[in-house]
Amino acid sequence: MKTRYTSLVSVKKNIMQKSERELQSVNAKLKNAKKALEESKQDINTIQTPQNGKASSFLATRTLLDAQRSLITHNEEWVKYTQGEVQQAQQKLQKDTTEFEKFKYLETEEIKKKLQEIKIKEAKDLDEVALMTFGRKDKDLGEL
Q1: CA 144, CA 127: separation in Å to the nearest integer?
Q2: Could you list the residue range(s) of the whole structural domain that residue 32 is in?
Q3: For residue 20, is it within any domain?
Q4: The domain that contains 104 carries what CATH number?
Q5: Is residue 75 a part of any domain in this protein?
Q6: What is the DSSP letter of 51?
């Protein structure tokens, strides 16, 4: 049964589904960021520091360690940023879901009202038909 809210409910549902897809996308980005952070932390543990040798090899190892620490810092910031995106996406989804539910409720209430009006009209029509047939029975019995 169509109501004045039907098209609006459809639009709100599409918006809510879009928000759900955005949240899934952002969650995937967060998962990738966390994975990259873990990998960079594991990679720093695999760097072997020389125990003896030339100073250049010590400096090269130190530069490599600094670069890896910088990568870890970058990945930590990426994780924090994507966590913020996830929170924003969750809030947007919650707002869109609330809007959808609100209009869905209004549509349901309007359908209930229309159904109630139809029931009342049908009851009146049945009463009218019953009165008409009752009157005919009295006339039919009077003729006998």
Answers
A1: 26
A2: 6-112
A3: yes
A4: 1.10.287.1700
A5: yes
A6: S
Measured distance CA(33)–CA(105) in Å, rounded: 39
Render each residue's pLDDT in the chain as its tens digit; 144 residues: 888 889 999 999 999 999 999 999 999 999 999 999 999 999 888 887 777 778 888 888 889 999 999 999 999 999 999 999 999 999 999 999 999 999 999 999 999 999 999 999 998 888 888 878 876 665 665 555
The CB-side HSE value for 123 (13 A sphere, CA atoms) comes to 6
Distance (Å, rounded) from C-alpha 109 to C-alpha 1? Answer: 12
97/15 Cα distance (integer angstroms): 9
Global pTM? Answer: 0.73
CA distances to 6, 51, 66 from 98, in Å: 16, 63, 48
* Residue that has been written with the tokens 């047939």 in this structure: 133
Say if 22 falls within a structural domain.
yes
Would you tell me how many other CB atoms lie within 10 Å of the CB of residue 89?
20
| Cα distance between residue 68 and residue 50, in whole Å | 17
The number of residues making up the chain comes to: 144
Given this model, what pLDDT does residue 98 score? 96
Reported in sequence order, the residue ranges of 25-108 that DSSP labels E, i.e. its strands, are none
Please give the single-letter amino acid code of residue 59.
L
